[in-house]
Amino acid sequence: GDSVITVQLTEEDKVEDDVVFYLVFTGSTVQHCTSTRKINPGSLETISPGHDCCETVKVALCASREGHPVLVVAEESFQFVQDEAYDAAQFLATCAGNQQALNFTRFLDRSRPPAADVDFLDEKVALAFRHLKLPAEWNVLGADQSLTDDIPRETLMHFAVRLGLLRLTWFLLQQPGGRGALSIRNNEGATPVSLALERGYQKLHQLLTEEEAREPDSWSTLSHTVYSGDYSVKHHCKLNIYMLTAEA
Which superkingdom (predicted)? Predict the structure, then answer.
């Protein structure tokens, strides 16, 4: 989700300015409707919706004009694919509380990927995490709620902070167990907060310690989402695109 989609109109579809085009994505359990903006008489632009699963959906280009019925201009298939970011988010979600898996992720720390790669990883994995269907009982600290704060262990928060993943850290902070993870020490006695300080991640340390800390700048912060029951409306400020998502 959140990629820019360009729609090329045929000559016969280029109509007056009072015609409004929008796209309807119909999946197995969720339907999205996105507005579009005109780049020129023959091109439209919109944002792909974040979908709840990897599948091929039907997408319809519709035209609306006041006083006239809605017209379906064209239909096409659109595929939501399982990429590396989705795989990583799925893996990390299942890692919560799994010490063997979390210790395995520490090898990434030794390879120290370049800053640009870390930023790309952070943005993509955090976005994929947002669209995962996490179980209602999912917790950053894992399923074993009998463990107390004084038992040393590795957590998802340690992983995100160790790599300097600002946006993923922010996402985890908003989830059950996110704030509680900040006081958990690993086997070296480090908390996520002390790790951020030790590695000189000033923005990350600020995010973890300031009550009024704001969400890190990213593509996701260029949008605002309002939820109401089975519906949500998202506004992408940069392109002025609106997206309505409804559970079927």
Answer: Eukaryota
